[in-house]
Amino acid sequence: MKRRVGLPIVALVAIVALASVLVSAASGRPETKSAKGGTYTVGWESSFGWTDSFDPTGEYLANAFAINTNLLLRGLIGYNHVGGPAGAKIVPDLATKVPKPTNGGKRYTFTLKNGVRWGPPVNRAITSADVKYAVERLARPKNGAQYGFYYPVIKGFDKYAAGKAKSISGVKTPNPKTVIFDLTKPTGDFLMRLGMPAVFPMPQEVAKCFEGKPGAYGRYVIASGPYMIEGSDDLDISSCGAMKPISGYDGQTRLNLVRNPNYRASTDSAKARESNPDRFEFIVNANIDDIYNKIGRGEYDDSYATASPKVFREYTLNASKRKYLHSNSADGTYYITMNLTQPPFDDVHVRKAMNWVLDREAMRRAWGGAVSGVVAEHIIPNSMLANRLAGFHPFKTPGNRGNAAKARAEMRKSKYANSGGVCTAKECKNVLLVTDVRAVDKLTLPIVQAGAAKLGITFAARSVNGAYPVIQTTSKNVPISNRARWFKDFADASTFIGPLFDGRSIIPSGNTNYSLVGLKPGQVDALGVKGTTKGIPSINAMNDKCQKLALGARRTSCFAGIDKVLTQKIVPWIPYMWANTVTIISPNVTKWNFDQNAGFTALAHVAVKS
Amino acid sequence: MSEVVLDVRGLTVVFPTHAGEVRAVSDLRYTLHRGETLGIVGESGSGKSVSSLALMGLHNRERTRISGEATFGGRNILALSSKEMQDLRGKDIAMIFQDPFACLHPMHRVGDQIVEAILTHADISKKRAEQQAVELLREVGIPKAGDRFKDFPHQFSGGMRQRAMIAMALVHSPSVLIADEPTTALDVTVQAQILELIERVKRDFNIGVILITHDLGVIAETADTVLVMYAGREMEYGTAREIFTAPQHPYTWGLLRSMPTIEARLKELVAIEGTPPSLVAVPSGCPFHPRCAYAFAPCPTELPELRAIPGGHLDRCHLSPEIKREMGEANVAERLGAVR
Amino acid sequence: MPLYIARRLLWAGVVVLIVLLLTYAVFYLLPAGDPALRFAGKQPTPESLALVRERLGLDQPWYEQYGKFVKSFVAGDEFGWPGLGISYNTQIPVIDQVTERAPRTLLLILGAAIIWLVLGVAIGVLSAIRRRTLADRAAMGFVLIGISTPVFWLGLMALFIFWNKLGWTGGTGYIPITEDPGGFFSHMILPWTVLALLFAAIYARMTRNTLLETLGEDYIRTARAKGLSERKVITHHALRASLAPIVTMFGMDIALLVGGAIITESVFNIQGLGWLAIDSTFNQDLPTVIGVVLLGAVAVVIMNLIVDIAYAFIDPRVRYE
Question: Scanning A186, A363, A384, A447, which has its CA 20 to 30 A from the CA of A152?
Fold first, then answer.
């Protein structure tokens, strides 16, 4: 009896199994579903917010870097767009290989691959002249380059920028496939500087129409990567006057990218770019809740937005949704900045005491808790120093809540405090503190105030909407601010050290060395600094030394050393958090990775249900 | 006498309010004939307007208690439904009011408002109605009626507005026309014209007119019969001749005495002492007794009945017929300047 | 009347220019920091900052900039008339930005205006003629809710209920009617209703109050004395006289919404003028700010004029020379 019943069932199962094998064999594909196809939709909070209207020469917005390096544009070298330390590895992109510098670290020679072409409507091969054109374009002051300060290391750059030369002597193009860079001095991170879109090749025939008009080219960007702006093939480039902005990007609310027919995957590596979706849509949405609603429903796949606490909770507490939330190190530090020229912070003991007393855990909670990041142990995030300084936490306190006793013990050594370690001098009362009006600033301010109060320091807090212009104006002599944070430009510690702590970076407007580390007496008058201007410590020499080293362990150790000196001896900051980027994606996303270099979703590796 | 067109018996109007019951009109009775002008006279708050509005059914049904009988066209119009009243209003009974400027809609043309009155109760073409309206305007003495038809109320003078109001009231040849203080807001010269117009209209259309006023001079000129009201009650009711030659009620004497005339040279105006009572707290007994110079024992407690004295007319007073006659004559003589 | 209109239009032009002048002044006097910094990148050198300022025209004193602006405004520039220049932020001509977004805002206002006018007046009339009954109290309750409910909450709730849960309407975003009429209406019905609710409440209350006042007038008594049905008395006499304040308010409300329907536009992601105004202000994008302010000022001034003219038609006692 059993046998007879069993036999038909076994037969049925066998037939079904055979059938499915035959079917999949017939379709010629592996068992797993193909990742290709579909549209990856990104909801963008409130407005694109470009710094230079998406014109690569000046565009500095991190989201633009992500779109450009993952999808739209290729440079001589690039990254694999993955997370963690592997994301900082430099790989060849348009060049055949990553060159080792010659001539004492001052010469980099690149050979362009075969078969790399511009997208429609330019269509021709990408040549070395396109690279030189891009560099010279950014050198010309009227083109609004916003991170041009990285490139004067190229010989002849400044001379050309000043109009005293017809071309940049340090960029040589002996033939259409070869580019040679000659530098004024060995610069270890030069390759990383070449990984930024401003120096990616640019087609002169199109870009020349926008000479002297920063941002204008942003609506006509010609693709060199796997995707192009939708409608590029309809662009009429017969003359400058005939050009109308590419239809797939309306400048304000929508950016659509489709596959670039002239892109050859054989000239690229799947490790760097998989190019799975057929289409990318970036949609500006004024309603943040709506963005996350749509992600939940699968109408959007991803977002460039900051989720509200409610959405955070929903995705962290709900087990089935937890897998759609990704938290990755953003390679950035949130910190309290103290101005070394302004009492009472002109006394290092006061600065150290502030580091002892601050409740860093509370600050982190104000930002959203564990999801937002980890408490900072020193200045530069560990991921950028290859974990060389992991565990180096000179001001460590139990639970990171601060230690008033240790703080006061430190205060006692300062010239402002009494024997109890509490500041009694008038310099500690009503110290100007500049803060911002965002919700989180209202939460972090009381924490800072509470800590300082234990040391007898009180603040006159001034809230400014968009506080950066105030604290970036050196002549305003702002003593302290809780507004600041800093993210890398590329994965080298020099992007922290230089702009933040090198005395030569101090400028009157737009200054980012808020603490005025390395300030020299000669700079004082021109900058309008008033206060303690003598004996300000400097790391300029150390910075120069480390900058010369090539990328690698020695260079990393060198910069780690500067971090140690700054964090422990000079103490210009109270770093409190190394931020995370939190990304929430929709259930339709079948593959997701983090691009450590760009600090966002690795658009080059995502896949979505079609 | 000609046909009775309106017969009012025991008309009472009460407004229940938070402060108490307002007895605006108590037990009013009179009879109106075709071709007769009944003048209802009294101070403000005497209930004269309220009683007429009750006849028109213009009070808010939910907030007014009306009782009594008003027989018109064989039915008690006080008992009709609001739809039935609406049918009568402007057709069989019409009313004009005191301030013709406020009484005409400022944003519609005068002619259109008259046409509206016509079309409400007649199913004729607009053109015909317009023709009729122009005709009426001409009849009430408005010059260039055809042009003035298109004007707005603010383009009319006071007198002309009142003429237009009268025209509007007459569109359907009503049997009764109630004129509530029609001349109070007008100049003296215009007053006379309007009163004359009302008189002519009364004769031409053969209607009964109720003329409400506080001005005895107006009554003297036009009324056939007179009804004196005080605190919502009827105090004296008779023909104009009777009231003016032989007034019987102390209140009427006071009214007549307080009228300045050309003949009598008075050193100062004689007013009736005191003020009319609040209708929420009407004095007990005879409502006039607190101000009456002749009040005696029964007055504060007993409400006098409306009675005709022998050889006289109806009044509501406890005084004996003899005293009434005597005082009445004295009052008249005083007024005619015999006393200097 | 034509002379009056001509004079008013002339005045309107002067007012608009003054408004723009004030906008320039405020923009430069506000302590928001150097706008050039916004477009100069991280760590700009003083030279590059100077170049940015020169390019944006920020190196000149504000009254000179204003003068230049007026000239190009009146004469037109390379992008058309009036000459409004190019946005600092998006490099799109301001005219194009404004004309792209204006229809969305105008259609939003138009739809909402129709709804709130009809709904508000109807509720107000109902409430007035059924004074102190349940209907009146319910209506005034609706008014209270409509006026006190924050628009963004209402919008988010409406989206949640009608789009997210019930799926009856389209969600956020705007679809041009020329592209897909069905989609246009399905996406606009919620923003229209949400925007209209607040105003409907205000209009209901205003209509009720004005109507009650009017119903006490003598000419209403006359109308009733003529034997007119109560319905005719209300519509033909009372409402007609109550129109004036409603029309005045209507005109002004529409004008103010041109630049002001910000919350509704942002909740429903309509990308209209209100949103443009906010965004360009935060980005210190002066030309766009000017463009939106200009449109708003023109709207107010023109609606003012229209309302005044309408007034003359409504109330014949009012005459203009």
Answer: A384
| Number of neighbours of residue A368 by Cβ within 10 angstroms | 19
Reported as half-sphere exposure (CB side, CA atoms, 13 A), residue A172 has a value of 11
Residues of C with CB under 8 A from a CB of B: 217-219, 221-229, 232, 236-237, 240-241, 314-317
- What is each CA distance from B32 to B9, B37, B48, in whole angstroms? 12, 8, 15
SS3 A222: coil
Do both B255 and B163 map to the same domain?
no
Q: Which of 250-279 (A) contact C at CB < 8 A?
A: 250-253
Residues B171 and B257 placed together within one structural domain of the fold: no
Residue limits of CATH 1.10.3720.10 in chain C? 97-314
CA-based nearest residue in chain C for residue B180: C222
Q: Which residues on A lie below 8 Å from C41 (Cβ)?
A: 51-52, 58, 60, 144-148
- For the stretch C160-186, what's the b/e string if a residue is b when 16 or more beta carbons lie within 10 angstroms of its beta carbon? eebbbeeeebbbbbbbeeeeeeeebeb
pLDDT tens-digit map of B154-194: 999 888 999 999 999 999 999 999 999 998 888 888 888 99
Instruction: Tell me: cis bond preceding B143? Omega within 30 of 0 counts.
Output: no
- Residue B302 placed within a domain: yes
What digits encode the pLDDT tens for the residues A123-133?
Answer: 999 999 999 99
The three-state secondary structure class of A379 is coil
Report strand pairing: A302-304 vs A39-45: parallel
CATH number reported for the structural domain that contains residue B203 in this entry: 3.40.50.300
In 10 A of CB C111, how many CB atoms?
18
Domain-embedded: residue B29 = no
Name which of A223, A228, A249, A246 is nearest A48 in CA terms. Answer: A249
Task: Give residue C32's pLDDT.
Answer: 59
Block means of pLDDT (10 residues each) for chain C, 321 residues, are 86 87 79 68 73 78 80 81 81 88 92 93 88 86 88 89 87 87 91 90 91 90 91 90 88 84 89 87 83 87 87 80 59
pLDDT category at B272 given cuts 50, 70, 90 is: confident
Question: Which two three-digit tokens encode residue A97?
Answer: 């290989």
Q: Which of B315, B327, B172 is nearest to B233 (CA)?
A: B315
The answer to whether position B66 is within a domain reads no
**Is B257 found in the same domain as B123?**
no
Does a structural domain hold residue B276? Answer: yes
Is the separation of the CB atoms in A60 and A53 below 8 Å? Answer: no
Please tell me whether residues B213 and B262 are part of one structural domain. Answer: no
Give me the mean pLDDT over the A478-491 stretch. 91
Are residues B93 and B209 both part of a single domain? yes
Q: Kindly state whether residues B272 and B210 are assigned to the same domain.
A: no
User: Maximum distance among all alpha carbons in chain A?
Assistant: 104
Which residues face A432 on adjacent strands?
Answer: A460
- Classified by CATH at the fold level, domain C97-314 comes out as MetI-like fold (1.10.3720)
Q: Which residues pair with A284 in a beta bridge?
A: A44
Query: What's the total number of domains in chain B?
Result: 2
Burial A111-148 (b: 16+ CB within 10 A, else e): bbbeebbbbbbbeeebbbebbbbbbbbbbbbebbbbbb
Say yes or no to pLDDT of A70 above 80: yes
Cα–Cα distance between A348 and A71 in angstroms, integer?
Answer: 47
Most C CBs within 10 Å: which of A252, A434, A474, as the mutation test of the C interface?
Answer: A252
- CA–CA dist C311, C245 (Å, integer): 9
Say if residue B209 is in the same domain as residue B250: no
| Residue after which a domain boundary falls, among B159, B193, B223 | B223
The answer to whether the complex's ipTM is over 0.90 is no
Could you tell me the residue range of the domain that residue B318 belongs to? 245-339
Q: Could you give the 3-state DSSP secondary structure of residue C89?
A: coil
Q: Which residues of C touch A511 (CB under 8 A)?
A: 43
A534-558 pLDDT tens trace: 899 999 999 999 998 888 899 999 9
Contact present, B95 and B178 (Cβ < 8 Å):
yes
